[in-house]
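Weekly modeling sync, notes
Attendees: S.R. (lead), two postdocs, one rotation student

Agenda item 3: backlog of single-chain predictions. S.R. asked that every request posted to the team notebook include the full sequence so nobody has to chase files. The rotation student volunteered to paste the first one in as an example of the format we agreed on. Action items at the bottom.

Example entry:
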Amino acid sequence: MAPNHRQALVTAANLILEPGMFQMFRNLQMLSPDSTCKAFDHKANGFGRGEGVLAFVLKPVSAAVRDGDVIRAVVRGAASNQDARTPALSQPNPVAQERLIRHVYAQAGLELGQTRYVEAHGTGTAVGDPIEMRAIGGAFREGRGRAGEPLYV
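Predicted structure, as returned to the notebook:
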């Protein structure tokens, strides 16, 4: 097969090789005492650290269709933000998050009402998770329609 210069292999890994970050998160009381993240659950008490590796191929949709690839997702836009005004990493700014969601959708030319599933950060904390859900709810609420279609998170 000839080389294809219009695709990219994206990889990432998280390995816990030294205790410094673990100790910092523990001191900030961000870690779950039972090492289990219960994001968006009334029992949320912090997050559990873990190791992992991922890899995926990015290529134009037309090339993926042509090549008969299984398409798991289509990236139509991306952005990130941090307003540097929140008290902690586990306490996002709901106004900034909602603004970012709306910005990315507008930039991609998408209607918020078309979305049925959102992949969220999920801090696993009693403070951060409700803040994040307020931002998601604020951004997508008006697009739910009269039938009240659910938005899965």
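Discussion: group reviewed the output briefly. The two ends are 40 Å apart (CA to CA).
Action items: rotation student to repeat for the remaining queue; S.R. to check formatting next week.
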